[in-house]
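Forgive a beginner's question, but would it be possible to get any protein sequence you like and the tokens describing how it folds?
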Amino acid sequence: MKSLHVRSYAKINLCLNITGKREDGFHELDMVMLPISLHDSLVIDKLNKSPDNFVTVDDFSIGSFTYNLATFSIDKLQSIYKFDQKFRILIHKVIPIQAGLGGGSSNAACTMKAVNTLLNLGATDEQLMEIGKSLGCDIPFFVKCEPARCQGIGEKTTPIKIKNNYYVLIVKPEAGCSTREVYAVADTMDLTSCDVDTVIKALEEGDDELLASSISNALQAPAISLVPAIQAIIDELKADGLKIVQMSGSGSAVFALSTDKKLLKRVFKKLANKYQVELAKVLKK
């Protein structure tokens, strides 16, 4: 096998609590994350007689961003498994950047899994999750890519069940959010929190009213202080009759979760000329 074509899925955060800050600067978290069908596409090829790995991204809006999580993931595997093989990775970007949807972490997780397959390294998901956590807090979640409660700095994942079949509308303003800047502002504020067990109960029982009243993102207020358009989008979605509405991750994308696909399509058409809008579905695994 010389190459693999893989889908690299995005995620949304139904709840995000900050429970502490460690000495190394990382924040302790307690989250519920759901994978969604919105995805980038990756082609990973073995290279013959190449001195380096090459990662190519087709999204020019990335601009000055150093897109290297995929490269770092190969380097990390090489340092552990001592292989010399080099790779070319072509990434077709669809997941918006600086949106809180985990695109870079998903790309890194998919790259690790692909290299593991192509080289028959024999690494288990648990081993890849352990390796990935040193590169990015969301990477362990994307190794298994299933609905989960994520704790610690994101590396401790516990699968959860979802009763309803949800669709999700993603709405992103023009401005993105720097994760580092959002956390820096969060460190200066009193933050909201939610009862994670109640959110999980609502998902398991299919209780949308309970879910709508229970979700919370501690980073939402800090992100809105940097990008006020986030609040405008939340208000618009709720005014259109959507109840399960929240910013994902560190922003700036906002999601609306619903079993009513027709309603989401109507809102999609209404907002598509103002924002970057995507319609997807929640992946149950």
